[in-house]
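Example 366.
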Amino acid sequence: MDELNTRKDAALAAIADAATPDAVEALRVEALGKQGWISQLLKTLGKMTPEERQEKAPAIQQARAEVADAIAARKQALDDAELDRRLATETLDLSLPAPVTPKGTVHPVSQVMDELAEIFADLGFAVKTGPEIEDDWHNFTALNMDENHPARAMHDTFYFPDRDGQDRAMLLRTHTSPVQIRTMVNEGAPVRIIAPGRVYRSDSDATHTPMFHQVEGLVIDKDIHLGHLKWTLETFLKAFFERDDIVLRLRPSYFPFTEPSVEVDVGFEVVKGRRVLGGSGDAPGHAWMELLGSGMVNRRVIEFAGLDPDEWQGFAFGVGVDRLAMLKYGMDDLRAFFDGDVRWLQHYGFSPFDQPTLSAGVGATA
Ligand code: DAH
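Predicted structure in complex with 3,4-dihydroxyphenylalanine:
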């Protein structure tokens, strides 16, 4: 019995002195491991007579419990001390300046929107924005799509739950065209604006995402005709794609908010598996690609916006910003635009120092 107590006291003292988790573990193995001395003592109990066992077992069990508790307590104390040490050393000083090399990149959509603003600012256009949560009147009715207009069905609209008994009153805008209406209503004429922004449609595959980007263009003035539209689009696309050989084909089409309406195709050829804009679509090895919708603003739209269509006319156009980015910078999957994958952003993103300017070239190097 005395010998047991002496060994136990020695073990407890050693545990209290142990300076590292490894030292504590070594002491645990020595006492409580398979070959440990307390484990060995416990084994002897089986061979004892019941009387003997009754006499000796409590002291051995007691020793085992005390040593096990001491080991657990010492381990915890060492862990706590280690955590305190790390908390004291691993501080983060938020007042320090950021690292000199910026790690983030400008998203291609932002970059292209900046390029558009730069190009159109040079032509005298202001940049306007409108709400993404839009009402039915601005998104549809005022754009000459009344409640029963079949074109509404093509918009795959996200509606908000009914409010105040009003059915389908609010929605996520399906295009940037409502900004045409808001600008004319708020500012009257003349107008020369572009309106870039997010739009939403319930649609999803490799070339469609439920949220995407458009840029709208609107010019309202006196004696505006289709020639102005063609020149503006040509000048814009030549500046944007940085090529003088961009050739457009205007094709008759239909949009409720324009009359006449034209779909604009642009000539391209396939170079190393990639579509490269330039040249007539009728030239050998070339083809036409549909790029944007446009037309002369419908008189009814000008009326809805509170202006006199006999006095004011104009043209409008709408084009996908993501599509422009893909064509210019060569991405082939639209979904990756909105995945937030850092590797994609590092590859396709732009340096914040690459501000698009007409003098330095709007096409910053990706
Ligand atoms: N709003 C149309 C759409 O989302 C695009 C469009 C076509 C805009 C012709 C226009 C336009 O301003 O004149 O499909």
